[in-house]
Specification:
glycoprotein; disordered C terminus; alpha/beta; membrane; single chain; repeat; cell membrane; twelve-stranded parallel beta sheet; disordered N terminus
Length: 986
């Protein structure tokens, strides 16, 4: 975002001379000798009357000599007003925007000789740009940037044929300027400088045609203008004088346009933050004047053209955050060409560069900024890196570099920022690595395997502002040299193998600090009752051995994580200051007691509250409606009582709700159906009762986790739960649920996905906290869930989004197991044990190929085990014990490894390994298709029909054979019938 706000502004030397041309003649005038024209003085006073000037910035506008008034310049010979400069930044460098001018602008038509008008950085509160400005024919300089104008840009500005400088930049303005067409621009044939930053040009399809009519245009700034496409000109572009072009942060979705490469005088090109596609063309080599190429954050692919090395004026090359796939050795070619002697800034972060660094890096003679972070680089950092004496910023983070850090780093005497975090580097770090780094302010070595070995009396030559040593071994004691660093605003010593008592100096720091992270160590002691930091945003003391009461914190605190310590007492000390603004309060797994006070609701910016796994007791307050931004609430594993407050239903942004393992009773409040953003809903292990409400399936459509286990819910499982198409975890175990398992549960599409989504369970919560540097600061809040699977409790955090599970065990469910459950192909855990289910196991159970745990034990299932169960190649737990199953146990694949007889115990009619062998005449029903009830009825029908036919046949023929009179009568009747039929056909 910083690069979006502070664009590289390049003004060529000719343009600088042009701007000074307005100022030098007027600054040399002795204003006291000038006489003001009365008509012009009257116009200025009328202009002043329309303005609101609460701090009297125009207090000098009195008397008859207007040429001496603030912001007014008159011509030395004609005594006409030629310049009106009321730009806020020129008038007053004050502390507040309230000093800016506002109000209405009366026409200045009497100032016929005005050639310079600057109203920039005032606050005209969305009024239109006055149309009369287009009538001031002599204007050559017009600056209305960030002055608070809104609405449509008047086309009358196109009448200013002498205009050379036009600035309508609105980036810092609350109000939106727009233009539906730019035809009026084509009349400004003298225009050399044009800035329309953040003006809405979404409907100005003619933008390029209008610009192409400005033959002397030198500087063009159109960033943040919502431009959608590069227009292909019908003719060769006329922009032969263009030196600086900024079209960044628009909506271009195309390849680089061909007309771009016809601008032979172009010195600066900025197209970053678009969606420009395709490869980087060799045609850049023809633009020999280029000094700056900024193509950051696009969709470029392919390699870096070697021809870029031939740009002998190139100072800045930024191709970061694209899809460039190349060997980093391409930089060897570039450094060997003339660009190697001119490049000052080289940024290739966030691409797919591969290969090793080498000595060619030292061939860049004047390089001050090098960023190769977030690529695929490997190998070691060459010792020759110490020869780039001009280097000030070096980023090699987030690669796969290995080996040790060369001691030659200590030769980079100008180095200010050094970041090699998140690699596979190792080895000893000593004071030799820092011996000449007196200008170093940002040191980031985190997420490597460095071991610090400094002498106890080492005096660092630097004063660091960022200290990032995460996962570096700096313990077991706090290193003495850190005590002498008193300017830092980020200190990260997490996972640093420190086994020590926290020193006083870490708490007595009286500076402003953004981040203090000393988590995941063995640091002991008490935290002082009041910390002395001037301000603090983030503090993470988690997973240490701190004890004693919670400390009071600076009012600026935003994020607190004290997880996994031994803090005791109540949480009241944290709320001693009424002005706290924190958004994340995470104090899980301590021994905090007492109640949750109503005052917790006074902190309206609260985003996440996690007080789980403590000794909190009493009922919850009713004030939750005040926390409108709350997205995560975890109060699990405490001793809370009472009913769940209905006011929780007012939390419309709530995504995670954990109230499990407390003593809540009563029914689920209907008001919770208004929490429509819920992703995790866990109220398991309480004393809740009543039926499972149907509104869970009808209203909470984003649910991915529903855990109601170990309560006293009764009645049927509502079929509406099948409407939760995103549901991945359904845990209703340990209740008093009855009736059939709804067959519609087989329609839950999220459980049918064999490839789980990459998106984290709660993306917004986990990315909720961002630090000033991407490698530091917490990532927000990670949801955690305890599941019973494979016969034991397992806690899931990082991989929670990949889990798919159904647990309906320990209820009183009856009926058959729906065969539709076998459509949930992504299911990993299926537990229906401890119910009263009957019938046969689903024949298609083998479709659940990802199933790792299957438990149908302690039911009344009958028939044989389906042979398809042998297709479950991921199965590591199978329990079919205590049913009425019969026949041979299937064999093959994963079943061969599951040889524990206890998983079949209680089924007396089962045989085969790992039980006793089946008898020789034992039917092998396990290998035959199982008929369901309807097929059995059809079979009985056919058998009875055949038996009836046979019986009827022998009854008739038996009579004919045994009784002569009957037999004679039968044959006479037959002969007579045949004779009649024969006569009828003659």
């Amino acid at each position: 975002m910083e690069l979006q706000k502070k664009f590289l502004i390049f003004v060529p030397s000719a343009q600088l001379i042009f701007l000074l041309g307005f100022l030098i003649p007027t600054l040399c005038i002795n204003q006291s000798k000038l006489r003001c024209r009365e008509s012009e003085r009257a116009a200025l006073l009328e202009f002043k009357e329309g303005l609101r000037d609460p701090h009297s910035l125009l207090s000098s506008w009195e008397g008859s000599e207007c040429c001496n008034w603030r912001g007014i310049i008159c011509d030395n010979e004609t005594q006409h007003v030629v310049s009106l400069d009321l730009g806020y930044r020129h008038l007053f460098d004050g502390p507040s925007t309230s000093w800016r001018l506002s109000g209405e602008i009366t026409p200045l038509l009497s100032l016929k000789h005005l050639n310079y008008l600057d109203l920039s950085f005032n606050d005209f509160r969305g009024i239109d740009i006055p149309e009369f400005i287009g009538s001031i024919q002599g204007l050559s300089y017009l600056n209305l940037s960030n002055a608070g104008f809104g609405g449509r840009i008047p086309s009358q500005i196109g009448n200013l044929s002498r205009l050379q400088y036009l600035d309508l930049n609105s980036f810092y303005s609350w109000y939106t300027l727009y233009a539906d067409d730019l035809q009026w621009l084509s009349h400004l044939s003298s225009l050399r400088y044009l800035d329309m930053n953040s003006v809405n040009l979404a409907n100005a399809d003619d933008w390029f045609y209008a610009i192409n009519m400005l033959p002397v245009l030198s500087v063009l700034y159109f960033p943040n203008c919502q431009l959608k496409e590069f227009t292909t000109p019908l003719a060769v572009p006329n922009l032969t004088s263009l030196a600086s072009l900024d079209l960044s942060n628009n909506q271009f979705v195309s390849m680089l346009p061909n007309w771009l490469f016809n601008m032979s005088k172009l010195e600066c090109i900025n197209l970053q933050f678009n969606q420009i596609r395709g490869s980087i063309p060799d045609a850049f080599a023809n633009m020999t004047s280029l000094e700056v190429i900024q193509l950051r954050k696009n969709e470029l692919l392919g390699g870096i053209p070697q021809s870029i090395g031939k740009l002998c004026n190139l100072r800045i090359l930024d191709l970061s955050s694209n899809n460039i796939t190349d060997d980093v050795s391409i930089l060897a070619t570039i450094s060997s060409e003339c660009a190697g002697g001119t490049l000052e800034i080289l940024n290739l972060r966030g691409n797919n560069l591969v290969g090793n660094l080498s000595d060619w890096l030292a061939h860049f003679k004047v390089l001050t900024y090098l960023d190769l972070g977030s690529n695929l680089l490997q190998g070691s950092i060459p010792a020759s890196i110490g020869n780039i004496s001009t280097l000030r910023s070096l980023f090699l983070s987030q690669n796969t570099l290995n080996g040790t850090l060369p001691e030659t780093m200590g030769q980079l005497s100008r180095l200010n920022l050094f970041d090699v975090s998140h690699n596979s580097l190792s080895g000893i770090i000593s004071q030799v690595h820092f011996q000449n780094l007196s200008k170093l302010e940002h040191l980031s070595l985190g997420s490597n395997s460095f071991v610090f070995n400094m002498s106890s009396d080492w005096e660092p030559p630097f004063r660091l502002r960022l200290i990032g040593l995460r996962r570096c071994r700096i313990g077991p004691k706090f290193p003495p040299w850190l005590k002498k660093q008193r300017d830092y605003n980020i200190l990260d010593l997490s996972y640093a193998e420190i086994n020590d008592t926290a020193p006083d100096w870490i708490w007595n720091y009286d500076q402003h600090i953004f981040l203090l992270d000393i988590s995941h160590n063995q640091i002991a002691g008490e935290v002082p009752g009041r910390l002395k930091y001037a301000s603090m945003s983030i503090i993470d003391l988690s997973f240490n051995q701190f004890e004693g009461p919670l400390p009071g914190l600076p009012a600026s605190i935003e994020y607190i994580d004290f997880t996994g310590n031994a803090f005791s007492g109540t949480i009241f000390p944290l709320f001693a200051q009424p002005m706290l603004i924190f958004s994340h309060l995470i104090i899980t797994d301590n021994i905090i007691n007492g109640t949750i006070p109503d005052s917790i609701c006074n902190y309206l910016d609260m985003f996440v509250i996690d007080l789980s796994s403590n000794l909190l007791s009493g009922e919850l307050p009713e004030c939750w409606a005040d926390l409108g931004d709350l997205s995560g609430l975890n109060l699990a594993n405490n001793k809370l009582t009472g009913k769940i407050p209905s006011s929780l239903g007012t939390l419309s942004w709530l995504q995670a709700l954990h109230l499990n393992n407390n003593s809540f009773h009563g029914e689920l409040p209907t008001a919770l159906k208004s929490c429509t953003m819920l992703i995790t809903f866990d109220v398991g292990d309480n004393k809740l009762s009543g039926e499972i409400p149907t509104w869970i399936g009808e209203s909470l459509l984003y649910l991915r986790i529903l855990r109601l286990r170990s309560n006293m819910f009764n009645g049927n499982i509502p079929a509406q739960l099948s409407l939760l198409t995103s549901l991945q975890i359904l845990d209703l175990a340990g209740n008093k649920l009855s009736g059939n398992i709804p067959s519609s549960l087989g329609n839950i599409s999220a459980m049918a996905q064999t490839h789980k989504p990459e998106a984290r369970m709660m993306e917004v919560l986990q990315g909720a906290v961002q630090s000033s540097l991407h490698n530091y600061g917490p990532s927000g809040y990670s949801d955690t869930l305890v599941l019973v699977t494979k016969g034991r409790k397992m806690e899931y955090t990082k991989n929670l989004q990949y889990v798919a599970s159904i647990d309906l065990s320990e209820n009183i469910l009856s009926g058959n197991i729906p065969h539709q459950l076998a459509n949930l192909y992504g299911l990993q855990n299926l537990n229906l044990s401890g119910n009263k289910l009957t019938g046969k196991m689903p024949e298609n159970i083998g479709q659940l190929e990802l199933l790792e745990s299957l438990d149908f034990s302690r039911n009344n299932l009958s028939g044989s085990i389906p042979s398809s169960i042998s297709l479950l190649t991921s199965l590591s737990l199978l329990n079919l014990s205590y049913n009425n199953l019969s026949g041979r146990i299937p064999t093959g694949h994963q079943l061969q490894t599951l040889n524990d007889p206890s998983m079949y115990i209680g089924n007396s009619a089962l045989c085969g390994p790992p039980l006793e062998e089946c008898e020789q005449n034992e039917t092998h029903s396990a290998t035959l298709p199982i008929k369901d009830d309807e097929e059995s009825k059809m079979l009985e029908f056919y058998i009875s029909m055949i038996l009836g036919f046979v019986a009827g046949f022998w009854v008739v023929w038996g009579i004919l054979l045994s009784i002569d009179s009957v037999r004679y009568a039968y044959f006479e009747f037959t002969d007579s019938l045949l004779e009649r039929l024969s006569s009828a056909f003659r």
